[in-house]
Amino acid sequence: VQLQASGGGLVQTGGSLRLSCTASGLTCGNYGIGWFRQAPGRERELVAAIGWNGGPTSYGDSLAGRFTVSRDNAENTAYLQMNTLTPADQAIYYCAAAYSYMDVMAGKLVYWGQGTQVTVSS
Q1: What angle do CA 15, 88, 50 make, to 5 degrees?
Q2: What does 54-92 look like in DSSP terms, one character per residue?
Q3: Which of 48, 80, 97, 110 has the fewest CB atoms within 10 Å, measured from its CB?
Q4: What pLDDT is attached to residue 22?
C-alpha cells in the first residue's frame, strides 16, 4: 500500500498550488482521506478531510475559504487545491487514509504518504 503526495513546490505569496494524493495497493474510494501539514518546530495539524464518496468535508481553522479538498475515486486520487497562499502555509504536506471520515477526524490514520514540501516566498 502506498500513498504518493505530489504537487508541492515554491510559490509566491498569493499564489496557488494543487496537491495530489494517489493511492496504490488500496481502493481509495473505501477510505476517508486527510491532508495534514507540519512546519518546522510545530505540531502536525489537520488541513482538510474528505469522506469516501466526496463528503463530508472539513477544514482546519481559517482554511475553508482558501483550501478545497476533493477526490476522484476512479483515478484513486485525492486533491487539495490551495489558493491565496501565505508564508504561514509553508510546511510539508502529507496525505493519509483512514477507514472512514470520522476516523480521519479522530486521528485514526492507517496509511500515510511521504509528504510534499510547500514553500511560499514573501
Answers
A1: 75
A2: S--EEE-TTTTTTEEEEEEGGGTEEEEEE-S--GGG-EE
A3: 110
A4: 96
State pLDDT tens for residues 62-89: 899 999 999 999 999 999 999 999 999 9
Cell reading at 104:
480521519
> Does 111 have pLDDT greater than 90?
yes
> CA 8 to CA 2: how far, in whole Å?
18
Checking DSSP bridges between strand 111-112 and strand 91-98, what pairing results, if any? antiparallel
Residue with cell 509566491: 12
Residue 86 corresponds to which amino acid? Answer: T
Neighbours of 44 (CB within 10 A): 14
* pLDDT tens track for 34-61: 999 999 999 999 999 999 999 999 999 9
